[in-house]
Amino acid sequence: MRRDMIExxxxxxxxxxxxxxxxxxxxxxxxxQGESIQNLALMRVIDQQFLETPFFGxxxxxxxxxxxxxxxxxxxxRRLMRLMGLMPIYQKPNTSAxxxxxxxxxxxxxxxxxxxxxxxxxxxxxYIPLTRGFLYLVAIMDWASRHVLAWRLSNxxxxxxxxDALDEALERYGSPGIFNTDQGxxxxxxxxxxxxxxxxxxxxxxxxxxxIAPGNNISEGxxxxxxxxx
Length: 230
What we know:
By secondary structure, this protein is α/β, with parallel strands linked by helices.
């Protein structure tokens, strides 16, 4: 907020304004750099491979990239995978107690025959690679029709853009019977779950990273590639 108070062309010099606001002058002129073209290309390769082998950790992904001829080390690959929010799917010990405001809800779709619109909705978050960076995409989809009801882009993982998409979907299509997501922090947050409760929606949560249940012919990879966004 203090950086936004700096006025170029003001009677006071930039140096004087920084001193009064207790800001480092170098930070005013610094322009954050996005990821390099090489790293963005690597991220696309990593993403494509991760859709095929979601159990690949940083070590296995590094070995795969090296086999393709990329000169990378595990530190670089680990950083890019963290930046992309990719976590390998394998069982890990539960070493932390859940936060009291982040309740996990049971999975409600076992054995359910989903045949009509607004019976079940689902949502997921992925990222969209750009020339000099990437944005996060949240998409809300009707399970039966495969139609994307609402979506939003954001440069942060804050829950706000998810709730904005949810509000649009509820306003345009009414309330579903059940809303299923994974256990990502945005979907377990109070802002998200309270909005669903206000709309009279039953909340269902699958395992972390699995908002689409096994046996359904919609894949997270297809949603990530935009196959069902129309």
